[in-house]
Specification:
The complex is a heterodimer of chains A (356) and B (400).
Chain A lengths: L4 H19 L2 H7 L13 H8 L2 E5 L8 E2 L5 E2 L1 H14 L5 E5 L5 H6 L5 E2 L7 H4 L4 E3 L4 E3 L1 E6 L14 E4 L4 H12 L5 E4 L3 H10 L4 E5 H10 L6 E3 L7 E3 L2 E3 L3 H20 L6 H4 L5 H6 L6 H4 L6 H9 L2 H8 L26
Parallel strand pairs in A: 1-4, 1-5, 9-10, 9-11
Antiparallel strand pairs in A: 2-3, 6-14, 7-13, 8-11, 8-12
Helix pairs in contact in A: 4-10, 4-14
Chain B lengths: L7 H4 L14 H33 L30 H34 L4 H16 L2 H13 L15 E3 L2 E4 L1 E2 L3 H31 L6 H18 L6 E2 L2 E3 L2 E3 L2 E3 L1 H28 L2 H9 L4 H31 L11 H12 L2 H30 L5
Antiparallel strand pairs in B: 1-2, 2-7, 3-4, 5-6
The chains are: A alpha/beta (356), B mainly alpha (400).
The complex binds glutathione.
Pfam families (chain A): SBP_bac_3
Protein name (chain A): L-amino acid ABC transporter (Glu/Asp/His/...), substrate-binding protein AapJ
InterPro entries (chain A): Bact_solute-bind_prot3 (IPR051455), Solute-binding_3/MltF_N (IPR001638)
């Protein structure tokens, strides 16, 4: 990728953080001080700010196949990327009004806190501390995941217990590294960590044999495995050592923007449930089911309640398709099964509240 | 007879001017401007500060350094002190600081030695040697350091795995897990012996000063070496024996996935150290060359006329003079090594920047994290500068 961008990105995001937090909202800060009744007004303008800027700035991975990766033409592809596009359509009715900002596991939060991005759609695990003391709001879970290990078949390891004494590659700034240490302690497994920030570098360290195992979310392992030259030489061990509910998140204090993100996700889920697809969305407007009509803006004014165009639902599905289609398009090819991400009607966990 | 008269203008004290409260008075203008500038800075600072506090509050981002004594849970690959993931963030940061010092201090020493040798080689009358040194200096200085680090790291990674590791001598293994060496099983006795050695070194230094002072008084030379031998070798040995003379060698051995035991030089540390040393030595070599060439040629000729050999001329006459030119730019090279060591994150060596970045990611407290990093580098850099300034003053020409 671009190793030279590393430090400038880091320095920039640090500087941007300092800058934005510092200079951020001078006037509102003063005007607002006496009005204790309206807290967080200063931060709650993401929605308006994005609208008036005309583009959505979306923090994504630096390149995890299936979630966010530029294709050979440089067009970003993946589940998370299409979430960004879906939200851009909801806001602007234009899937191209997105600026993708690649972030590493380590600098993603600074990018969101500082306002460099409006939204992170980047396999980020919903945890209590991120939801509170880091100052974020998780809008939804678009992929239920868990942490696992990948090893080379030649090591002969069959389960996590076989990793005693192993060297394990891990990315810093993740729940992954913390789960790893806790799991090792609980299972009395000694290991040497190799901690590398850049995804390509950490994968390279694993592939070259610097590490015996690589650990991250199982979806990330599947993605890495699919991009290795000889994917049969790598095996993902059966152990799942954590819960990793991954989903889009925004800065805390802008409930309106969070609502847009959350309900766009629900829209994608509900669309699958009702059989609304990218191809048939335009005809489904005439579907007799009232909920389908409300979702697509034929009846009711749910879109307006979100502060959006009433036809936002129709526009979004026409632009990116429903959740099932996204899964089929991006994750099935790299060998990821629906599993817990099946609709609740099929025994999975993906469930949308009523559109009413 | 002539009386020397002074120019009367020099005798007269400068007129004490009263401060007139008028814009025409230069001093009044100066004071007003200074107050204005200081006030402006104060106001800007206050404005930035209060906005930061306010915005952090609005965004519900935690502030303060309270996180430092929370459990870190971070895996750290190498550490000079005992560390486990159940330790606090503070200790994790300390590990990072020590890792930074470990690479900076060793890097400074090695780069100085290598740079000096290359700088001298560059001036050598041996055509091949001087050309090789010249090419080295040009190439190494022209390539970005980060690129070099990634290069060395990928070389380390392409070494064979632990099972096929190179085994040049008994107990030494080189593989993509790093360099494994046999090492002493460290016990308290060794720590005490080490302390005794340090005490001995201080003692030796004091004695040699005393010996010089006495010789200046009565002209009789007093040898330093017997005392030095006793203090530096004898004393630690005695202490070691007193504690039972423990001596167990810890041999590295392949067990399961990895080597156990012995001393490990990790590929990350090695690649970083190698990259920093080779890169900085290129600059130091040029500084040394320039310093030597700055000594007037007459000094060489005069020394040679006295019958000194070339080596002796270099050592006794030229280098001491060259040092005065060399030290100031050397300081900035030392600062560069220290600061460039933060490129460690690119190759997974967990220095202070890498660990502080992880801490600020886990806690979300970017401002505090950046402040810690700045404080660390500022302290290290100021210490290096102060030391080098002191040393520079010491070797400066004493004008009498
Ligand atoms: N879900 C975990 C880990 C997320 C994560 O960063 N995973 C890695 C490995 S799949 C990743 O996405 N890296 C991509 C990158 O650094 O660009 C978390 O939120 O802390």
């Amino acid at each position: 990728m671009q190793p030279f961008g590393l430090f400038s990105t880091r320095a920039l995001s640090a500087a941007a953080l300092a800058g934005t937090l510092l200079a951020g909202v001078a006037a509102p800060a003063r005007a607002q001080a006496p009005a204790a009744q309206a807290p967080a007004a200063a931060a709650s303008n993401t929605f308006d700010a994005v609208r008036s800027r005309g583009t959505l700035s979306c923090g994504v991975n630096t390149g995890v196949a299936g979630f966010a990766q530029p294709d050979s033409q440089g067009v970003w592809r993946g589940l998370d990327v299409d979430y960004c596009r879906a939200i851009a359509v909801a806001l602007f009715n234009d899937a191209n009004k997105v600026r993708f900002v690649p972030t590493t596991a380590q600098n993603r939060f600074t990018a969101l806190q500082s306002g460099e991005v409006d939204l992170l759609a980047r396999n980020t695990t919903w945890t209590l501390s991120r939801d509170t003391s880091l100052g974020f709001d998780f809008a939804a879970v678009n992929f239920y995941d868990g942490q696992g290990f990948m090893v080379k078949t030649s090591t002969g390891a069959k389960s996590g217990k076989d990793l005693e004494g192993a060297t394990i590659c891990v990315q810093p700034g993740t729940t992954t590294e913390q789960n790893l240490t806790e799991w090792a302690r609980a299972n009395r497994i000694r290991f040497s960590p190799v901690v590398i920030e850049r995804l390509e570098e950490v994968v390279q360290a694993y592939a070259s044999g610097r590490c015996d195992a690589y650990t991250t979310d199982i979806s990330g392992l599947a993605s890495t495995r699919s991009t290795q030259p000889n994917s049969e030489e790598h095996v993902i061990l059966p152990d799942v050592i954590s819960k990793e509910p991954l989903g889009p998140l925004v800065r805390q204090g802008d409930a309106r923007f969070a609502d847009v993100v959350r309900w766009t996700h629900f829209l994608l889920i509900a669309a699958e449930e009702f059989g609304i697809t990218q191809a048939n969305a335009a005809q489904m407007v005439n579907d007799p089911r009232p909920e389908v009509q409300r979702m697509l803006g034929r009846g009711g004014d749910l879109g307006k309640m979100l502060g959006l165009d009433n036809a936002w639902g129709l526009n979004v599905i026409r632009a990116v398709g429903n959740y099932g289609e996204l899964f089929e398009r991006h994750l099935t090819p790299i060998g990821i099964k629906r599993g817990p991400n099946a609709l609740w009607t099929n025994g999975g966990l993906q469930y949308a509240p009523p559109f009413r | 007879m002539s009386q020397t008269t002074m120019d009367p203008r020099l005798l007269r004290a400068p007129p004490k001017r009263k401060l007139r409260l008028s814009w025409a008075d230069e001093r009044v203008r100066g004071i007003v401007w200074q107050i204005l500038v200081v006030g402006l800075f104060g106001a800007i600072f206050y404005w930035l500060w209060s906005n930061t506090v306010h915005n952090l509050e609005v965004r519900r981002i935690a502030t303060g350094f309270g996180f430092l004594d929370r459990e870190a849970g971070l895996p750290i690959g190498e550490s000079l002190i005992e560390y486990s993931p159940t330790d606090t963030y503070l200790r994790a940061l300390l590990v990072g600081l020590l890792n930074t010092l470990k690479v900076a201090v060793v890097g400074i020493v090695l780069a100085t030695v290598l740079g000096t040798l290359v700088g001298i080689a560059r001036l050598s009358r041996n055509w091949l040697l001087s050309k090789v040194a010249g090419v080295y200096i040009e190439v190494i200085r022209d390539l970005p350091l980060l690129l070099q680090l990634l290069f060395w790291y990928s070389i380390m990674q392409s070494l064979p795995g632990p099972r096929q590791s190179l085994n040049p001598v008994e107990g030494v293994f080189l593989s993509n897990r790093g360099l494994k060496l046999p090492w002493l099983e460290w016990q308290d006795a060794h720590t005490y012996a080490l302390l005794a050695f340090v005490a001995g070194a201080v003692g030796t230094w004091l004695w040699s000063r005393r010996a010089t002072a006495l010789r200046l008084q009565d002209g009789k030379p007093r040898p330093v070496w017997p005392a030095a031998l006793g203090l530096l070798v004898g004393l630690p040995l005695v202490v070691w024996f007193a504690f039972g003379a423990p001596w167990t060698v810890d041999w590295p051995a392949l067990r399961g996935f990895n080597f156990r035991g012995g001393l490990t030089v990790t590929p990350e540390y090695f690649a970083l150290l190698l990259g920093l040393v080779l890169y900085t030595a290129g600059f130091i070599a040029e500084i040394v060359r320039a310093g030597i060439q700055a000594v007037p040629h007459g000094q060489w000729e005069a020394a040679q006329a006295l019958g000194l050999r070339r080596g002796a001329v270099l050592k006794r006459i030229v280098l001491p003079q060259a040092l005065r030119v060399i030290i100031p730019p050397m300081t900035s090279q030392y600062l560069n090594i220290t600061k460039n060591s933060s490129l460690a994150v690119a190759i997974g060596y967990q220095d202070i920047v890498s660990i502080a970045n992880t801490v600020l990611n886990q806690t979300g407290q970017a401002i505090e994290g950046i402040a810690i990093i700045m404080l660390v580098y500022l302290t290290i850099s100021l210490s290096i500068s102060l030391f080098m300034n002191w040393y520079n003053a010491r070797i400066a020409l004493v004008e009498r």
